[in-house]
Amino acid sequence: MRPSIRLCSLSVALPLLLACGNHYGRPEKPSSQLAFGVDMAKSGLWSEAMFRFQQAERLDPDNPRIQNNLGVASEAAGNYDKALDYYKKALRLDPNSKDLRANYARFVEFYQGFKGSATAPAAAGAAVAPAPRRPEEPPAPPQPAGDPLGTPEPATPEPPPPPAL
Question: Rounded CA gap, 91 and 108, in Å?
Fold first, then answer.
């Protein structure tokens, strides 16, 4: 193969490889970090999800979805006080969101029981952490009803998954 043909083939293939290799778009975009975090949360990699949500927050601190997802990841990690702060901030940013209000209401119900049992005698038993809520994905094109991330999880108390190492 002549050098000019090889160079031409490389110049065509390299941009294609670079474009296909970056599944999450551009890391400087909050939506890319948010999407990456959601995928990590779905895989149970809560530490990585938290990191990605924090990167998204750094880029867009007033995004209610990002704040909600930080609350979900904090809750999954057992950082309930921090989760409460994130959920409250998400609601301040978008008080009309049904999903945010539902997440907040379920968390507050658990949190009050958790705080109450923390001061109760040990014989009363310890509170069980709730199942982590699903993080919200960045806005997508309209889809038929039944979006899996838009519907709230049932409020079955379960311990959060162990943090990823």
Answer: 13
